[in-house]
UniProtKB/TrEMBL annotation:
It comes from the Bacteria. Pfam families: DCC1-like. InterPro entries: DCC1-like, DCC_oxidoreductase. It comes from Virgibacillus pantothenticus. One of its GO terms (molecular function) is protein-disulfide reductase activity. This is Thiol-disulfide oxidoreductase.
Length: 129
């Protein structure tokens, strides 16, 4: 089973993060779904995930990760030096999430917000649920 990333579909920063992951996920192991969409909401319900639009969520089989832990698990699977960022997993989660929350809580102000989710380009559309 592929790993599924749930993201805020109207956040410019989140959209750019998805584009970054697509570029560095050479094995195409990640699939994507917007937290605002039907599929994202279904996955949130099925996995009993707190519905929090300010958190990136990674579903990996029966486990899910949120906030900084999700980001670090994603980085571990990317090509290049990005996987080295996984070393930050050694920092206690409350400290990591403190910094994650500063960005998440200001993402619309700093990076903007879209009116709706954009359709991905045809070459990557198959990776969106």
């Amino acid at each position: 089973m592929s790993k599924i990333i749930l993201f805020d579909g109207v956040c410019h920063f989140c959209d750019q993060s998805v584009q970054f992951i697509l570029k560095h996920d050479k094995q195409e192991q990640f699939l994507f779904a917007s937290l605002q969409g039907d599929t994202g909401q279904k996955l949130v319900f099925e996995h009993k995930i707190i519905n929090d639009l300010s958190s990136l969520i990674l579903i990996d089989n029966d486990k899910y990760y949120s906030k900084s832990t999700a980001v670090l698990h994603i980085c571990k699977e990317l090509t290049g030096a990005w996987k080295l960022l996984y070393a930050f997993i050694l920092i206690p989660k409350p400290i990591r999430d403190f910094f994650y929350d500063r960005i998440a809580n200001n993402r619309y102000r700093w990076f903007g917000k879209k009116d709706s989710c954009e359709l991905p380009s045809p070459d990557v559309r198959k990776r969106f649920l």
